[in-house]
Amino acid sequence: MQVSSLENLNPSCSAGSTSGISCGKTTTLLGAINSLEGDIDYWWSTTDGNIIAGARTLTPTIDRPGTYAFHARNRITGCEDIDMTTVNPLTKNIEINESICFGESYEGYTSSGTYVDTLKYACDCDSIRTLNLEVFRTEISSEITNAIGDENNGSIRLTEIEGDAPFNFLWSNGAITQDIENLISDDYSVIITDANGCESTFDFFVDIASNINDLNENIHILLSPNPAGENDAISIKIESNQFGKYIIQVYDLLGRKIEDLNHLHYSESSSALFSVSQSGIYLVTIESDICRKKAFKLVVR
After folding, report:
1. Which residues pair with 103 in a beta bridge?
2. If you average pLDDT over every residue of the chain, what do you get?
3. Cys staple from 143: which of 17, 157, 197, 230, with CB 3.0 to 4.6 Å?
C-alpha cells in the first residue's frame, strides 16, 4: 500500500494573475489547485470586491474590482494555502463632440472649448472624458435712428451679424426683415434664429430726437422728476437772463396735446408745474417768444 507523505497532503493553490474589469461588466477568475492529494476544500473571498456566483468553484464570476483570495484546505490535516489576485478597474478614454446654443449649459459648461474630466462611477471604474464643446452664438452691430417728435420716422438697422447663416428674424412689431423702419419712439426686440436653430434675443429703444432748433445756449432747462409717476407734480425749471414768455406743450406718442402752458419767465430762475395722469412716453416742447424750441422725452410710470 502506498502512503502519501505529509508534504503531499499540504495543499497548494493559485488565484491567477492580475487582471482588469470594465465598469458595469462581469469577469471570471481562474483558480488552480496544484496539489490534488487528499481531501481538498477550496473557496474564494474578498473584502472590497464582489463575487456574484461560483464562490466555491475554481472560476467564480465577479462584477467589481478589488483583491480576491483563493483558499485551499486539506480537510484531513487542516493545512491551508491562500493565494491573492488583484482585479483593477479599467480606465476608459472617451472623446465626445457636443454643441449647444448660447445661454444653454452642457454639464455645467457654457463656453466653447475642450474639457477633460475624470468620471467616477459607483463600481470604482473611472473614465477619462474629453469633451469638445461648441457654443453657437449670434452677435450683432446696429444703428438706431431716433424718431423726431411724435412721428413714425425712426429705424433700426442690423449692420453686422456674426454667427451661422442663414438667419431668420422676428421683430416685436411682427416684421421679419433684417432692418425695420417707420418706427415711433418705443421699445423693440428681435429674435434671430441661426442655421442651427439657436435663438438670440436683442433689445432696442428708439428714442425721441428733435428736428427743431435749440434754445440759446445761455438758457438752461431742467425737467424733474424724469421718470415721473402718474399725477406727479413735474417741474420745468428755466434758468436764464433772457426774460420773456415760454410756451410749454406736452404730447403723447400719437401726437395728441396733453398739456399747454404759457409761462412768463421774468427772473433768472423760474419754474412751471404740470402733471400727467397716465403712464407712457411723452414729448415735452418748450418754445420761447423768439420762436426757438427745445424738446425733451418724459417717461411716466
Report:
1. none
2. 84
3. 157
Rg (CA), the chain: 43
Q: In the chain, where are the structural domains located?
A: 11-88, 92-136, 148-207, 210-300
- DSSP-derived secondary structure letter, 47: S
Grid cell, residue 167, equals 438667419
> Which one is predicted more confidently, 150 or 87?
87
Q: Does 11-88 match 210-300 in CATH topology? A: yes
Quickly name the fold that domain 11-88 has.
Answer: Immunoglobulin-like (2.60.40)
Fold designation for 210-300: Immunoglobulin-like (2.60.40)
User: CA nearest 64: which of 84, 87, 43?
Assistant: 87
Q: Are 110 and 135 a contacting pair, CB within 8 Å?
A: yes
Q: What Cα–Cα distance (Å) separates residue 114 from each residue in 43, 110, 158, 160?
A: 48, 12, 32, 28
Q: Which of 58-72, 126-140, 174-188, 265-279 has the lowest mean pLDDT?
A: 265-279
Number of H helices and E strands in the chain, helices first, is 1, 27
Tell me the mean pLDDT in the region 231-256.
81
Dihedral of alpha carbons 149, 214, 225, 145, sign: positive
Between CA 71 and CA 15 the distance in angstroms is 9
Between 236 and 156, residue with greater pLDDT:
156
- DSSP 3-state of 243: coil
SS3 for 52-117 is EECCCCCCCEEEECEEEEEEEEECCCCCEEEEEEEEEECCEEEEEEEEEECCCCECCECCCEEEEE
**Does 212 have pLDDT greater than 50?**
no
Instruction: Mark residue 204 as left, alpha or beta (left: phi above 0; alpha: psi -120 to 50; beta: remaining).
Output: beta
C-alpha cell, 164: 451661422
Q: Whole-angstrom Cα distance, residue 299 to residue 301?
A: 6
